[in-house]
Amino acid sequence: MKRFKVLFGQRRMQVLLTLAVLLLAASVVIGSGANFTSASANPSNVFTAGNLAHTNSKAGAAILTAALMKPGDTATGTVTITNSGNIAGQFSLATSNLADTPGANLGKLSDVLQLKIMDGTNQIYSGPIKSVGIVQLPNTFSPSVYSWPTSAAHTYTFTVTFPDAGTPGSATTGDNAYKGSSMTIQFDWTAVS
Amino acid sequence: MNARTRKDARLKAALASLLVLALLAVVLQSLVFSGASFTSGSRNTGNALAAGTLSHIDSRSGQVVLAATGLRPGQSSSGTLTITGVGNLSAMYTLSVASLVDTPASAALSGALQLTIDDMTSGTAVREWSGLVSSLGTVPLDTIAPGAVRTYRFTLSFPAANAASGLQDAAMTLRLQFTGVQQ
Questions:
Q1: In this structure, are residues B141 and B128 in contact, taking their beta carbons and an 8 Å threshold?
Q2: What is the end-to-end Cα distance of chain A in Å, rounded?
Q3: Which of A53, A57, A95, A153 is deepest in the core (most CB within 10 A)?
């Protein structure tokens, strides 16, 4: 008896669950007393996963490059992103792998270059090239709708400006700090369903 | 069941409960924070931006271009220098007065001496500026491309018409500065 109590105490939950299952089974057996049945079926319910994909008109390549920039110069490039999948998605743009190579006067070009991204006449981003962060890309504006339907395409214009800060105070300060400096940056596009 | 056995049983039950709660938490987290099932990505690499370099070499940098002592009315003195574009940007150069000191301040010798600046690059003098030293401000010169060399001649003359007894033993020092601004 003592052994039974111990066993019961240790497996109390299991026993209770077993009893519950038995009761359920019993109710099914007892309740299934109908003589008539009627059945129907809906076969061929097909479930297909969607495909979220996009095309990048310059995938793996640069959107813009500029050499020998000087204060006041701008560089422009465009890229077209298309939702080529068969489901809608939300698109975003981010940057990565920013790398500066300072010139002789040690100025980092990313500290001074400004980036503006336009979707047609709509501004997507305007600010330091090093501070883009993650930019959500609307499919429509006013009101902003961020879900891109299938085949939606947007052409973005990237403009990088080297602001002219005026006559440098010395040979190594002001805009002169950026002589011979260069930088590279990567633009990453992501679609999420 | 002794006390130790009951304690062990409660401990096991507590551990089991914690395990269940942990599993529930994981399941709930996956339900709440499960983002999209599908993603698509692309990248644009190699966006390279580079600033140019601009500098120049002054053949007489920090040195005297011309010096004249004991200058008398009707005399002149000249000196030349070359400016060489360095770097990879063209620049428009100007010449300006960095400092001008007359001794004595009055009557000032700079008000009597005539300065003429000629571009001698082609071998033929091309006038850049001419006037009294005291009126020299900023003179636009030429655009100098990387690697290009221009030669400038500075001629200082003491016109007899400007002679005045008060200018005897007068002196003047003039410091010139070339500045290039990228084009």
A1: yes
A2: 62
A3: A95
Residue ranges of domains in chain B, CATH in brackets: 54-182 (2.60.40)
In degrees and rounded to multiples of 5, residue A70 shows phi and psi of -135, 160
A62/B181 touch (CB, cutoff 8 Å), yes or no: no
A2-43 per-position pLDDT tens digit? 544 544 455 565 655 555 554 444 444 445 555 777 888 878
**Tell me, what amino acid is at B20?**
V
Question: What is the reported pLDDT for B34?
Answer: 46
Residue type at position A25: A
Strand partners, B178: B95
| Residues of chain A positioned with their CB less than 8 A from the CB of B44 | 56, 58-63, 79, 186-189
Q: Are A139 and A149 in contact (CB under 8 A)?
A: yes
Q: How would you class A92 by CB atoms within 10 Å of its CB: exposed for 0-12, middle for 13-18, buried for 19 or more? A: middle
Q: What is the ipTM of this complex?
A: 0.73
Summarize pLDDT for B4-15 with one digit per residue, the tens: 667 777 767 776
Identify the H or E element spanning A71.
none
- B49 with A184: Cβ contact below 8 A: yes
Residue numbers of chain A with a pLDDT score lower than 50: 1, 3-4, 6-8, 22-30
CA–CA distance, B71 with B159 (Å, rounded to integer):
11
* Side chain identity, residue A80: T
* Closest C-alpha among B109, B102, B106 to residue B71: B109
* Whole-angstrom distance, CA of residue B169 vs CA of residue B133: 17
Distance to chain B for A121, nearest Cα, Å: 22
What separation in angstroms does the CA of B20 have from each of A9, B6, B16, B33, B78? 20, 21, 6, 20, 98
